[in-house]
Amino acid sequence: MHFDVITLFPDMVLQAAKYGVTGKAISRGLVGLSVWNPRDYTLDKHRTVDDRPYGGGPGMVMKYQPLFDAVSAAQQTRHEPRCKIVCLSPQGTLINQALLTDVSDYEQLILVAGRYEGIDERFIASVCDEEWSLGDYVISGGELGALVVIDAITRLQAGVLGDEDSAKQDSHSDGLLDYPHFTRPEQLSVGKVPAVLLQGDHAQIKRWRLKQSLGRTWLRRPDMLEKKTLNTEQEKLLKEFKIEVDVK
Ligand code: 4FV
Q1: Are 157 and 1 in contact, with CB atoms under 8 Å apart?
Q2: Which residues of the chain fall below pLDDT 70?
């Protein structure tokens, strides 16, 4: 997977992508990252990338041509058949694990990070395959969205996370919230580690963790449970959790 980010702040993206799992994956060549600044594709001596909005109103709008030429340059560098062009914006499809998993086997993802009030709609409509949103709020640019997408998809690439398992165990990967995690010390003034995790019975630990994931999803994100069909064992575990919660 190669990520190309179209951004007025290339260093912001390159710096942030240097850290942690993403940074290691890039240095190991497991994923690639290039940045393209639309200002480098402007045709006027003032290197203009934005202009006033037709119809008036506050702020500025990003111009079509510098973005078009920057995306073309990114495409021409790779000629990847399986390439998707995505614009990050509040008008987009809400990003979730399923959406990212669906594109995780592409060779190239071109991520367009807007700034100002937004981007000329003719660019989004004619050049972008999709629009994705981080969430129902407005931030100052698409770079953070692009970095979230890069981080989440990089974790799904083969060889990036230690044992293959860990990506699958990621919360949301099975449509459920994660179970609670504990580490040393066993005893704290604020509580102790659940006994089942100390007894070494891995079947019981697996069962307890699934029950916690089901229960926490039921308590905190019932919307996710509605999207999921539970098998009999999961139904049984959730029922147990509900009884235990009521008892408490
Ligand atoms: C955003 C979001 C977002 C809107 C105008 C950048 C800003 C400015 N991007 N998910 N929510 N973008 O608020 O992705 O250009």
Answers
A1: yes
A2: 163-173, 247-248
